[in-house]
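Subject: for your reference before the review

Hello V.,

The reviewers asked for a structural picture of the protein, and I figured it would be easier to keep everything in one thread rather than splitting it across files. Below is the amino acid sequence we used in the manuscript, unchanged from the supplementary table.
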Amino acid sequence: MSNLALLRLILLLSAITTCCCAVFSRKDMDATVPQIIASNGYPIEKHRVKTEDGYILQMHRIPAGKRSARRSNTYGGKGKRAVLIVHGLLGSSGDFVIMGPRNSLSYILADAGYDVWLGNLRGNMYTTHQNLTRNDPAFWDYSFHEHGKYDAPAMIDKVLNVTGLSKIFYIGYSMGTTTFFTMMSQKPEYNDKLIAFVALAPAVYIDNMKEISVFFLKSMDIATTLRQRGMLAVGLKQDIMDLVAENFCTAKNPDQDVCMRFIYAIVGEDYEQHNWDMTPIIIARAQPASWRQLEHYGKIAMTSVFTEWDDGMEGAVKPYKLSNVRVPVSILYGENDLLVEKSGILRLAKSLNETGVLHSIKPGCNWPKFNHLDFVFAKDLGKLVNRPLVRHLDELYNKYYQQ
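And here is what came back from the structure prediction:
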C-alpha cells in the first residue's frame, strides 16, 4: 500500500540516533527463501517463469511437508491440491516462511498435504528481466496492473503445467489481492483455472488513504522528485537497509522502539502480537517497489474508484471490472487494520456479493488488535489465522472443486 511504502522510506531515511543492543541472527537477515525452507527440513524447488513482457520470476515450491506428510497420498499423487500464494507490496515469497514452521502459512499448508507455490512479483530480489537491468528506468515502469496482466497469469500457468492439475487455489495478501482483481478484469479466462480465491487484507478500496496520497503524491509530488534525483524505486541498497535494521530497529521495549512506532502509526498498534526479535529481520528483508505502484494506489485512493492507471494520476478514471470475477471469494480482514480499513473491505464484499461470488467475509481471527502486518508477521499467526485457514481451504475444496 502507498502509505506503508512511504512510511518505510521515511523510516529508512530518518536520522534517528537511538540505538539499543540486541542479539539476532545475521543468517535470518541474509538467507534466501530456498535456504530458509531447506533449513527447516522441508523439500524445496525453484522454478523460473518468463512473462509475456520479458520479466523472469523465480517461484519457490514446497511440494510436501516433513516426513510424515510426504508419506501421504497427497504428495505427487492423485487428489493433491496446489495453492499459489502471492505477497504484498515491499514483500516476497519470504513473507510466508520467515516466521517458522509453527506460524508461517507455507509450512502449515505443506504439512496439511498441500502443494505450496510461492510467487514473486516483478521488482523484488527474485525477479529479473531478459533485457533490462535494475538501473534502467524502464525496468521499474509498472504497477500492479502489470502484476495482474502478466505476472499472476504466468505463475498460474506454471503451476498447472508442472502439476498437471486443472485448477488451483490462489491466496493473496494485500497487493497480492489487488493483483488478483486486476488479473480477472483483464483476463477473465483465468477464472477457469482457479478453485477459489482467499483474500487476506484485500487492498481494493482505500478511501482512508486519500489525504496522505494527496499530500505525498500530488502536493509534494515525491515520486517525480525522487525519480529526477536518480532514485528509480522505493527502497535503499541492501547494506544501508542492514545498517538501519541493526542500529535503529533492535529495541525490545515500546518506550524505546523506533521502527514499530512508525509502522504501527499506519497499520494499527499490536505490540502483543509483535515478535521483538523479528523487527530488524523484517526491515532488512523489505523489498523494493516501483513508484508507479504507489502512484496507482494513490489514484485509487483519491478517486475512490478501483481504477486502471491509463494516462496517469490525473488521467481518465476507468474502473476495473470486478464483475469479471466468477470464482468463490473468501475475505479475511483485521479488526485493527488502519491501512485497509473495514469500510473498504465491506464495500468490496458488497460488490462481490452482488455478482454472487462472495463465499464469506470475516475477521482473520478473534484478536481485536489484529492489524495489516499481522497477517504475515504476528507472533501467534499459526494459531490465530493459518491453521483455521487450512481447514477453510479444505471446505472450499470439498465444495467447489470439480475436475
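For the response letter, the relevant points are probably these. The domain at 2-400 is CATH 3.40.50.1820 (Rossmann fold). The CA atoms of residues 196 and 327 lie 5 Å apart.

Happy to draft the paragraph if you're swamped.

O.
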